[in-house]
Amino acid sequence: MFIEVVGASGSKNALSRLVCMKLGEKILLDAGSASFVSADQLDLVDVVLLTHAHLDHILDLGFILDSMVSRRNRPLVVMGSSACLSIVRAHYMNGLLWPDFTGISIGSKPLLEYRVLDDEVWETLPGGVECMAVPVNHPAGARGFLFRHNGFLVVYTGDTGPTGKLWAMALEQGRPGAVVIEISFPDSRRDIALASDHLSPSLARNELDKLGIENIPVHVFHMKPWFTEEIAAELCLPGKQVHFMKPGDLIEFS
Fold this sequence. Notes:
By secondary structure, this protein is of the alpha/beta class. The protein has helices spanning 39-42, 55-58, 61-68, 82-91, 165-173, 190-195, 201-209, 228-234; strands spanning 2-7, 20-23, 27-29, 47-49, 76-80, 105-106, 109-110, 112-116, 122-124, 130-135, 143-149, 152-156, 178-182, 218-221, 242-244, 250-252. Strands 8-5-4-3-2-1-16 form a seven-stranded mixed β-sheet. Strands 9-10-11-12-13-14-15 form a seven-stranded mixed β-sheet, with helices on one face. A two-stranded antiparallel sheet has the order 6-7.
């Protein structure tokens, strides 16, 4: 199991890419900057797995579907919570803001299929990775995920403020071997982080303490690009291996 980072930023400027990651060759995890994935790589993708329906996580979904019309021979499956998919259908792929690709056929099948991911049950995804969706503290149908492959367990927070169930579920499933956690704001903007259901360095430290696992690798994403240096300077996680994610990173989990 691996994650290849396409984009990891919590907002957009000339030097940043919104959140999108390849989970193996067949899955895109969010689609904020999915148009940076090459056409040949997109041909291999079967599923786009959405954490939630905020624009920075779904922006390029419409553009990659547009690029697939003339070259795709099977549907692209978009998975997420019922609330997340309802927002995408009603407010993005609605035939007004952008085409409804469920109505565009490739052969006898639609180009786009939606599939609701049920909470707190394991689902096997293409490539053999297992996924469990867990509600977290963020709007727009937000879910964090547990990913499992060959016995290795990864916690992926998605966007969230302080939360509880994700960490409890992770510990119920075994001993996590890595955490991918959002930190959007520095502690000088901790009030904004809490108001917007995000994390700051001190809030993230409190969340990781809920796992109670020393020496666990921690991969940080979703930093607002204008706060990156401040967040990096503030984050102090003694005993943990910290990595700030950036485009092009390839992270193997085993």
